[in-house]
Amino acid sequence: MGTNPYLVRDAGLGMRRSLLNQLVQSPPNEVGFYEVAPENWITIGGKSGRQFRAMTERFDFICHGLSLSIGSTDPLDEDFVLEVKKFLALHSIKFYSEHLSYCSQDGHLYDLMPIPFTQDAVKHVATRIKRVQDILEQKIAIENVSYYAAPGQEMSEIDFFNAVVNEADCNILLDINNIYVNSVNHSYDAEAFLKAMPGHRIAYAHIAGHYVEAEDFLVDTHGADVIDPVWKLLGKAYEIFGVFPTLLERDFNLPPLEELLKEVSTIKTIQNNWRVQHEKKSA
Question: Which of 127, 141, 221, 225 could form a disulfide bond with 97, CB atoms 3.0-4.6 angstroms apart?
Answer without folding.
Answer: 141
